[in-house]
Prior knowledge:
Helix content is 4%, strand content 70%.
Amino acid sequence: MHHQATGTFEVKLAPQKADNPQAEAAGLGRMSLDKQFHGDLEATSQGEMLSVLDREKGSGGYVAMERITGTLQGREGSFVLQHDATMNRGAAKMDITVVPDTGTGQLTGISGSMTIRIEAGKHFYDFEYTLEPAAS
């Protein structure tokens, strides 16, 4: 059965140093993620992002992994989201999906995708997901 969850979230990004010479030579941005979700998803998340940006041209991209822990429409547990996003001269494309088999607790068997939008500086999420029926 398909479900939809909506709400808002706050995000804190903290720059991280490269931890080896190869990563430093790549010149990529590295950030830790710390989020607080509200609405149908009452949860926190922590994760890590790698990014590159050309501000002059308005192009860039990022990849990230984040573990979300909390309550999704009354079901408690955790799952991991994988982000893949690019911006081509201001035109954004973003894909955020649940990593298979990362659901725990009452969220075991979860799959789905999330979209993010920013309006007047506020972050919103729309999360479409399915849950496999619990095994007897």
